[in-house]
Amino acid sequence: MTSHDVRDMLDLPQEGAPRPAKKQKLAGPRPVLKGLAREVQNLGGDNPIAIVPEVSVFKKRRFMSRKPASKWELVPFKNTARSDQTLILRHWRRKEASPPPTVIDENEGESSEAAEKPTPVMDDSTFAKFNVQINIPDYTDDEYNSRLASPGWSRDETDYLMKVISDFDVRWPLIWDRYEYEPPQPRPVEGDAAVNTGAIIVPPKARTMEDLKLRYYSIAATIMALRKPPIKMNSAEFNLHEVMQNFDAKQEHDRKKFAEAAFKRTREEAREEESLLLELKRILARSDKLNEDRRELYARLEAPPSTGNIGIFSTSGGLQQLLQQLMTADKSKKQRKLTLGGETMSPAVGASGQTQQNFDRRESSVRESISGPSGGNNKKGNTQNAADRRQLTEEEERIYGVSRHERLGTSGPTFRHDKITKPLVSKSAVQQAKIGNILGELEIAGRLIMPTAEVGEAYEGLLQSINVLLDARKVADKLAGEIATAKAHRAEKKRLARAESTNPTANGDGEIKREGSAVASVRAGSVQRKRSASVMSAISDKSTKRQKK
Amino acid sequence: MASQPMTSSIQPTDVYGGDEVSAIILDPGYSSVRAGFAGEDTPKSFYTSCYGVSGDRTIFSDEDVHNPLVPDMEIRNPMSKDGVVEDWDAATQLFEYAITSRLTKFKQSDPMTNGVNDTKDMDVDIEAADEEEKPLEEHPLLMTETAWNSSKNRERAIEIAMENWGCPAFWLARNSVMAAFAAGRATALVIDVGASTTSTMCIHDGLILKKSIQKSPVAGNWVSSQVRSLFSTQDPKIDIVPHYMISSKTPVDAGAPAQATFQNFKHNITDSFRALEEERVLSEFKESVVQVYQGPGRLNSTHPSGVPNIENVRAMPGRVFEFPDGLNQMWGADRMTVVEGMWDERAALPIPSEPALTKAQTIPEMIRASVQGVDMDLRAALLQNIVVTGGTTLLQGFTDRLYNEMQAMWPGARIKIQAAGLTTERRFGSWVGGSILGSLGTFHQMWISKKEYEEFGVSVVDKRCK
Ligand SMILES: Nc1ncnc2c1ncn2[C@@H]1O[C@H](COP(=O)(O)OP(=O)(O)OP(=O)(O)O)[C@@H](O)[C@H]1O
Ligand SMILES: [Mg+2]
């Protein structure tokens, strides 16, 4: 049975039905159907048949509240911001609860309504308060003649300017745009009228915005000072006065010329400017950083010398005291660790050993917290943390170079790169150069590119071998030298003995001693292989020193 | 607008400063007249500006103006080639028709007081009936005008509003300023490309900067004549056959001659009627085929890669247009050349009986002149507030080209074009701005009231509507 058949049975339309069903599905979660309805719905399969479920949430609230619809009425109002108060406009307002007094008017005609209504209850527009006026200075004839007259300006034009300014509320672009002063036409004198019209009418001078501003500001400043002497002005007024008085038309004019030039630049110029700006920004940023560094350096140089006496810490007793202080300071922390890691702590260990171990522990826990998931789970003291750490598989451990130790070496945790650089750094410059030469011969970079654990180990091994090689070579050289001298001695002695018989004892003694020391150094060289690099280097240093002596 | 129930006592005035006084906004243009209530988002009433004269009958409604069965109907337009009212008698009737047919036909008076419920007041109502002849007694009227409207025309407008229509209050607003308001800008560079004229000007704080006003005839009608010119130079020449002439047609292949039977009319069909109907076909063509080359560069310049731009355009797929008589054809690069003259006067097709375009009449040059005409300190802000309005700006690719042209003109400046995405908002930009202005609470103090009109006479309009 297909959905087609079901439709047939239910007398549903064949086409167009699925659409509304789909929409319905989109509109909200599919209603949970029960019983037969569900069975019927399921027959439809993927292409559900349209059974439009009733939506029972449609505007429920509105029908629930029995409040009557609010009433609105057309209310006349006036606007006190208008210069003409006769205009009465009407707008719709929600009707107040109390019946308005206009009920009586209802039966009367329009004319009486208009006559009676406006008097007491007329609202004022709520927007009237937004009407603000700007104060434009005005002046009397006397004031004009004594203080304001200016060569380029007639009284007539000044008045016109003031009018335009007040018309456009001191918006300068508009004032300049609409400024069209036409000087009053001189009354043609009889007789030479024709001559006059040709000669006197000069086109009105084009005033720049700066001209207009200069004129207005100087008038405004003068009038301001006249009305209220500058000494009596408050600071805001005084500042305004200063600004207006010191208006520099020329500077303003030049500024605009620059701005215009910048506005008209071509694409190349714009691009160049942009790149220059970028460069400037970079330089500034760099100089900022430089200044910062310099300041820091100065701060360090000028840091006040420590006032405390460090002398007491220079003895071992003093250090012991310091340690004791530090220990008591974070007693609480340690307490926890001691109980947790009690088993590793043997009471027989002396005070210094104990602290050493504690330091190790602390260091390791610090390292744990910074080294993240890779180095966590082998620390006994922090098992509670280890649980939430990610367990690494063996493969991963290998990749990340995780290694486990029963206990840390005497020097505590170290950085892997330390192991690599230490043997080099601790050598003399000559030694370093030699090692460098050998590495160069082997075509191995002095700095490891990929210092994984294995590479590090291999490198370490290589360095050790190089050291052994160098030492061996050195010893070989020395021995060869000594053999040569001994041979020479012998030859000399033989020659002398042959020539004349003398006392040989003193010389022979010295030679035996020297040979003994050489054997000792050779032995030292062979032993090195079993020791750590640092120990080895110390010994080899000693041996070279001895040799130099 | 008011369909949504106000849930609480918060009134909309607090939110957007609106305070509606059922003002009517009337925005006449060369191609259409838009009228509607302030505060709404599209004009309820939209009519073509053309009207018919048949004998002594004057015909306004859209159905009748386009009806070929009206005998000997001459089509006229009360607007001049500049988009300002020329024939005030016809315009008054046309505007009145636009307002009363859709907006104020039935006087909206309160059923409590209009006498329906109470027979006592019959005499009063009849008395008042004289007054009610005037259609706008209860509605302040805000009318738009072009920036270059003459003083005489403005005075005529207020006279008609006050005397003929009995408006309680009136205001005359510049349509470019209104378009800027519609885009939410009080300071803007407005580019209005309508039917009869294209204008560019700068608006500062809601007022036009007069020195920046530029206008030219390179607008919708000019594009139409370019298209006509294109059709007449096709081989074979294409005659525009309007819809009303066709009685039936059979489909033909692209480029094949049309096969259609024509309608026979017993009366004479005037040339002006035919021109009007041809214009409708041209409008369809403009809307569906014509496209502005969007840049960079111009259609006739060469791309930096060395390929002329026109070659690239030729490589693009063309567009098919079917004329009412069934003639159909693919339009390739030509669909762009017909509007290239808007940007590049040398690319304009010659139109017989009209002077060739000058460089200053092209849109980029008009914009340059407009910007040049304002104070330096304003220019950067203006270029970031470019408002594009008018029906012809709906040409595909118009704003992209505009942007490219302006970018080339001022490479260092930041240019931001504000073009409404909705077709209606672009076409009715100045009406929508008027609708916003007319519904603002702060605008109530601006209206010129009847009293003021009576006191100062018609000159009040020049004094107040600056
Ligand atoms: N989608 C469109 N594509 C191209 N042109 C269009 C489109 N829609 C309208 N036009 C054109 O726009 C013009 C009408 O624009 P609009 O309504 O802005 O002019 P108007 O204001 O009546 O005229 P004017 O401003 O010149 O007085 C017509 O020429 C019409 O052909
Ligand atoms: Mg227009």
TrEMBL record, chain A:
Domain of life: Eukaryota
A biological process term (GO) from this entry: DNA repair
Record GO cellular component, one term: NuA4 histone acetyltransferase complex
Pfam families, alphabetized: SANT_DAMP1_like
Main location as per UniProt: nucleus
The entry's keywords: Chromatin regulator, Coiled coil, Nucleus, Transcription, Transcription regulation
Region Disordered, annotated ranges: 1-30, 95-121, 333-415, 490-549
Basic and acidic residues bias: start-end ranges: 1-10
Subcellular location: Nucleus
DAMP1 SANT/Myb-like domain boundaries: 126-223
An example Gene Ontology molecular-function term: transcription corepressor activity
Coiled-coil region list: 256-300
Record keyword Nucleus present: yes
Membership in a protein family: Belongs to the SWC4 family.
Protein name: SWR1-complex protein 4
UniProtKB/TrEMBL annotation, chain B:
Cited Gene3D superfamilies: 3.30.420.40, Actin, Chain A, domain 4
SMART domains (UniProt xref): ACTIN
Pfam families reported for this sequence: Actin (PF00022)
SUPFAM superfamilies referenced in this protein's UniProt entry, alphabetically: Actin-like ATPase domain
Superkingdom assignment: Eukaryota
PROSITE patterns reported in the protein's UniProt record: ACTINS_2 (PS00432)
InterPro entries found in the cross-reference section: Actin, Actin_CS, ATPase_NBD
PANTHER family reported for this sequence: ACTIN (PTHR11937)
Entry similarity comment: Belongs to the actin family.
Designated name of the protein: Actin-related protein 4
Organism annotation: Amylocarpus encephaloides
